[in-house]
Amino acid sequence: MKKSIAITRAVSPRMASCELTHVERQPINIALAEKQHEEYQDALRRLGCEVIHAPELPFFPDAIFVEDCAVVLDELAIITRPGAESRREEVFSMAEVLEAYREKIYYIEAPGILDGGDVLCIGKQVWVGLSGRTNEEAVRQMQYILTPYGYEVQGVPLTDCLHLKSAVTQVADDLLLLNPDWVDADLFPDFDILETHPDEPGAANALLVGETVIYPTEFPETALALTMEGIELFLVDNSEVIKAEGGVTCCSVLV
Fold first, then answer.
1. Rounded to two decimals, what is the model's pTM?
2. From 18, 37, 163, 251, active-site residue
């Protein structure tokens, strides 16, 4: 069976100067972040992915967060236009990497802004978070690109979080992990919902790889709830990425 591809990028030595919106700045231990990123990439390999490294971007503090640069579907890839202006040059090297895996590559154009972390794709359904990093124009462009391929694209309002995938992710075929304070569960009527623990608001970000979920050790109560639902977890330490307002989905693009 052909391996899945996971595209990642090295931690920038300037990660401590990353963009922040909803969290207070804390010191980031770069050496620890690098160690955790290596362990994260090892988790991807152990779950059957071939890890491909995008070119390093040491002068871009948020460069590790490759998910924000592209949305990859079976038929095509969409290169984003990140909402933070400081991040817009990150997308070009990602486009070059994806040329080896997708013949059709589209681009979000101004005045659209789109972070890949705001895009949740399940089958032919695509939800796009309307956040401080993604706007209605990007949703319109995605509808124009994806409707001919049979996708249904809808914008989703968010409250008090950076990205849609900060608030909801898929953890099984028919199950979503969701923080109800950040996104309305009624927007996902075809799925069962597992709510994050009230003391762990950032716990909704999980990465489903095959039938296993890569999940941060930092959210033990929600991890326990996932386990009780029969979800197999691969736990990783994600403390430094969390300080940078990121999560486990943010650090790879699965192809």
1. 0.97
2. 163
